[in-house]
């Protein structure tokens, strides 16, 4: 079992990273959160990184899931372990909510907040909400001793994406998950944001789809 990899970022795209480890290139599935963090490292000229790995092995094959924080890996394991929530759904949740945000959503009773995740509609959001609420103790145990969401020491906090840039990146990823390529998604988001102001990814995506 692979639990971690240290190497050079060979290729990075939304949803996946290729890591060159001593001449062997590994294809690693990543969350949008990890994508943003790795992209920022590359922007700083830092290509060498260690990823915490969850090595998934089942009858369909093997897959590596990578995280910059060990805490994110453990959160992923908690969520994917809930009934009816698979690895890819858990990764989507991790992309858009940290553990404290998910906990607060469940306490507030607002399952609709989970629909901010691309391709998660009412029925799916209610299922996720129900499973997390039924297993709230597991989330509470995870949150104990997790007061904050620490940054890796090799990331410059001042250079992290602003809320505006993060919203833009989130909207681009939503379009990619709907079938757009990254270049087209970026072009459409920038075109609409140049004309109007949005603070909700769903509304922005709907506006783009209406204009096509």
UniProtKB/TrEMBL annotation:
It comes from the Bacteria. Gene3D superfamilies: 5' to 3' exonuclease, C-terminal subdomain (1.10.150.20), DNA helicase RuvA subunit, C-terminal domain (1.10.8.10), Nucleic acid-binding proteins (2.40.50.140). GO terms for molecular function: ATP binding; four-way junction DNA binding; four-way junction helicase activity. GO terms for biological process: DNA recombination; DNA repair. Residues 165-212 are annotated as: Domain III. Pfam families: HHH_5, RuvA_C, RuvA_N. Residues 1-66 form the DNA helicase Holliday junction RuvA type domain. Residues 173-212 form the Holliday junction DNA helicase RuvA C-terminal domain. InterPro entries: DNA_helicase_Holl-junc_RuvA_I, NA-bd_OB-fold, RuvA, RuvA_2-like, RuvA_C, RuvA_C_sf. One of its GO terms (cellular component) is cytoplasm. Transmembrane segments: none annotated. It is found in: Cytoplasm. Homotetramer. Forms an RuvA(8)-RuvB(12)-Holliday junction (HJ) complex. HJ DNA is sandwiched between 2 RuvA tetramers; dsDNA enters through RuvA and exits via RuvB. An RuvB hexamer assembles on each DNA strand where it exits the tetramer. Each RuvB hexamer is contacted by two RuvA subunits (via domain III) on 2 adjacent RuvB subunits; this complex drives branch migration. In the full resolvosome a probable DNA-RuvA(4)-RuvB(12)-RuvC(2) complex forms which resolves the HJ. Belongs to the RuvA family. Has three domains with a flexible linker between the domains II and III and assumes an 'L' shape. Domain III is highly mobile and contacts RuvB. The RuvA-RuvB-RuvC complex processes Holliday junction (HJ) DNA during genetic recombination and DNA repair, while the RuvA-RuvB complex plays an important role in the rescue of blocked DNA replication forks via replication fork reversal (RFR). RuvA specifically binds to HJ cruciform DNA, conferring on it an open structure. The RuvB hexamer acts as an ATP-dependent pump, pulling dsDNA into and through the RuvAB complex. HJ branch migration allows RuvC to scan DNA until it finds its consensus sequence, where it cleaves and resolves the cruciform DNA. This is Holliday junction branch migration complex subunit RuvA. It comes from Leptospira perolatii.
């Amino acid at each position: 079992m692979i639990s971690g990899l240290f190497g050079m970022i060979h290729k990075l795209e939304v949803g996946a990273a290729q890591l060159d480890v001593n001449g062997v290139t590994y294809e690693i599935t990543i969350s949008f959160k990890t994508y943003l963090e790795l992209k920022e490292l590359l922007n700083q000229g830092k290509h060498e990184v260690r990823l915490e790995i969850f090595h998934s092995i089942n009858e369909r094959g093997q897959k590596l899931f990578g995280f910059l924080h060990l805490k994110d890996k453990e959160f992923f394991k908690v969520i994917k372990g809930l009934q009816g929530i698979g690895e890819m759904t858990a990764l989507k949740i991790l992309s858009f909510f940290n553990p404290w945000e998910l906990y607060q959503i469940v306490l507030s009773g607002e399952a609709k907040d989970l629909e901010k995740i691309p391709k998660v509609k009412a029925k799916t959001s209610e299922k996720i909400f129900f499973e997390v609420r039924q297993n709230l103790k597991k989330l509470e145990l995870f949150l104990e001793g997790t007061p904050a969401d620490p940054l890796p020491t090799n990331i410059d906090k001042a250079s992290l994406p602003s809320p505006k840039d993060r919203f833009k990146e989130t909207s681009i990823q939503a379009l990619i998950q709907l079938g757009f390529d990254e270049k087209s998604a970026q072009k459409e988001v920038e075109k609409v944001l140049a004309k109007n102001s949005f603070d909700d990814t769903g509304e922005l995506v709907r506006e783009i789809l209406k204009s096509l």
